[in-house]
Write a structure and sequence with these properties.
The longest helix has 18 residues. The mean pLDDT is 93. The protein is of the alpha/beta class. α6 packs parallel to α10, α7 crosses α10 and α17 runs antiparallel to α18. The chain has a 5-stranded mixed β-sheet with strand order 14-13-17-15-16. It has a 4-stranded mixed β-sheet with strand order 2-1-3-4, covered by helices on one side. A hairpin with a 7-residue loop joins β19 and β20. The protein starts with a strand and ends in a 6-residue tail after the last strand.
């Protein structure tokens, strides 16, 4: 039977993909057309920028940016007559060709999907779809033919490290918890994804909730736990709904609850809604929140595997980590370990965003280079501008400059250059990004999200933010750079939790790799990227201006004047420094000057 898969992930839903799905239902299932294909809403297909996405199987045809108005044409031409609609095919930015199957697109063919194996292929609300793709086979295997020791050993041998950021060996965590005889024990899923630009865990919970449930049950059986919690941020409404539907379906089918698969083993799951605090992504703060307390971290001289939730042994992993468990149990540790690199086995899911042509959700083997991610998969920088940096690890991570474009993306290599893997957000920047402003943005974010428990974090981040504000406004001196470094060292050494200890990373890495920009802001009162308005002026090069008038027509405040085919002028007293002229000039004759432009 033909399948029509309509992406109904958050990105596509924002572009009315559900109306596309309903239109297919209306035109195919509620009419007398003889063909009766299976029409399914799926999770995120990854290429979010090109949604809504419609895939037609077994023809293996993929259409992008599909609107409700395109559905009738797809039915008449493709479904009924096998014709391909060229304008809806994906245009590959690398090969410069239209691609019929999404599998042949550069964005997809370099990927290796494990955690995302079902997303975009199944209806997330259908347990039958999940079972059809080997769902719950790993659970059956563990309950019927594996001991707790064998399960934990398999996870240890796989080399799986926690995908939430720290990269702690998953099997070691499970073993530590299993060794404590202090019941009840708890299993927790961290679905409180708070990094700006990150949507990996969200997409898994929305698109394949059953795999998270299966992974958690396997762990619970191995460590002798009968209760689990899914801590999901309140803003993730679709993720919460799909996870709850999956829990209900799993209970109805005997995969969750009492006497699972008639094995005599009981395990239940409950969803806890997070309050939107970034600090609750930290394990001890998250558990405090589940307990009904203020989400503040505690000292970790006693680990959560010994005293976690309600002071009982607790295993906490993030969504992506849980999604890797069923395929590891089903296929074996050696299979997983042969993917990736030494000490960094398997794959990693990234959300690729920023100044890159193909933004979206990506899963690649550990060890793939940053260059491959940005250029082979991401299609390169928008408008083919020059790559400047990439921020990995969210606010707690660091900036990676262009000299490290060929760095292997794994926990250890990123840590060695002052960044971190984090949960997997990658923000790509071009030459129009001001690195001082970027550091200021992250300090603003962290200042607001600090729980305030530690003086060093609460006050130190504010002090760093004040200094960065002064630099971007032209009111700083070079001594402020030394003060930033001293504050960074103090905050990192004296803060209690991971938020405080890693908060200075964006400042440290931008100072290390882009110090000249800080100096330019301070000494020359100039923001080369044209972002800091107090340190920016725009002027037009008389030699390069062709007098096309485009900048004059687009200027929102009429600050540009000139005759046709003659050099134009910018009136500094009127200019609001929005940068529109700079971005649209066809000859690059708009130039950026400092606060006191001498041109």
């Amino acid at each position: 039977m033909r399948k029509i898969l309509v992406c109904c992930g958050t990105g596509c839903l924002a572009n009315d993909s559900y109306k596309v799905y309903e239109k297919f239902i209306d035109l195919l299932l509620n009419t007398d057309i003889e063909i009766e294909p299976s029409i399914k809403p799926t999770g995120c297909n990854g290429l979010c920028e090109k949604g809504p996405v419609v895939k037609i199987l077994p023809d293996d045809i993929s259409y992008f940016k599909v609107s409700e108005n395109d559905v009738e044409e797809i039915i008449n031409k493709t479904i009924l007559n096998g014709e391909i609609i060229e304008r809806l095919l994906y245009f590959d930015t690398n090969s410069k060709k239209r691609i019929v199957s999404h599998k042949d697109a550069s964005f997809y063919k370099h990927q290796h999907k494990i955690a995302l194996r079902n997303i975009g292929e199944t209806d997330p609300n259908s347990i039958e779809d999940y079972i059809e793709r080997d769902g719950f086979k790993a659970l059956k295997k563990t309950l019927t033919s594996m001991s707790s020791e064998e399960i934990i050993k398999e996870v240890e041998l796989s080399g799986l490290r926690g995908r939430g950021g720290a990269g702690f060996p998953t099997g070691s965590k499970w073993r530590s918890c299993a060794n404590y005889n202090n019941n009840p024990k708890y299993v927790v899923c961290n679905g409180d994804e708070g990094d700006p630009g990150a949507f990996m865990d969200r997409s898994i919970m929305e698109g394949d909730p059953f795999t998270v449930i299966e992974g958690m049950i396997i762990c619970a059986f191995a460590v002798d736990s009968n209760k689990g919690y899914l801590y999901i941020r309140d803003e993730y409404e679709l993720a919460r709904k799909n996870m709850q539907k999956a829990i209900n379906s799993a209970k109805e089918q005997g995969y969750l609850g009492n006497n699972i698969l008639k094995s005599g083993y009981d395990f239940d799951l409950e969803i806890v809604r997070g309050g939107g605090a970034f600090v609750c992504g930290e394990s001890s703060a998250l558990m405090a929140s589940i307990e009904g307390n203020v989400g503040e971290p505690r000292a970790k001289y006693i680990r959560s595997v010994e005293k976690g939730l309600w002071n009982k042994p607790t295993v906490l992993n993030n969504v992506e980590t849980w999604a890797n468990i069923p395929p590891i149990i089903l296929n074996g540790a050696d299979w997983f370990k042969n993917i990736g690199t030494d000490n960094n086995s398997g794959t990693k899911v990234f959300s690729l965003v920023g100044k890159v042509k193909n933004t979206g959700l990506v899963e690649i083997p550990m060890g793939t280079t940053l260059r491959e991610l940005i250029y082979s998969i991401g299609g390169g920088i928008i408008k083919d501008r020059s790559f400047k940096a990439a921020q990995t690890g969210g606010p707690s991570g660091g900036c990676i400059p262009k000299e490290f474009l060929d760095i292997s993306l794994n926990f250890d290599s990123l840590s060695n250059i002052g960044s971190m893997m984090g949960s997997g957000g990658v923000i790509v920047m071009d030459d129009t990004t001001c690195m001082v402003d970027l550091a200021k943005y992250y300090m603003e974010f962290l200042s607001e999200e600090s729980c305030g428990k530690c003086t060093t974090c609460r006050e130190g981040i504010k002090m760093m933010l004040n200094i960065l504000n002064n630099i971007t406004e032209g009111n700083a001196d070079l001594e402020d750079l030394n003060l930033l470094e001293q504050l960074s060292e103090t905050i990192m050494s004296a803060s209690l939790c991971g938020l405080g200890k890693t908060a200075p990373n964006p400042v440290i890495t931008t100072l290390k790799y882009f110090r000249d920009e800080y100096i330019d802001h301070i000494e020359n009162k100039k923001c080369t990227a044209g972002v800091c308005k107090n340190l920016t002026t725009y002027f037009i090069s008389e030699e390069e201006c062709i007098g096309c008038g485009l900048c004059e027509r687009k200027c929102p405040v009429n600050a540009i004047t000139g005759n046709s085919k003659e050099p134009h002028l910018i009136n500094d007293t009127i200019c609001i420094k929005c940068g529109t002229c700079y971005q649209i000039c066809p000859t690059d004759s708009i130039k950026i000057g400092g606060a006191k432009n001498e041109n």
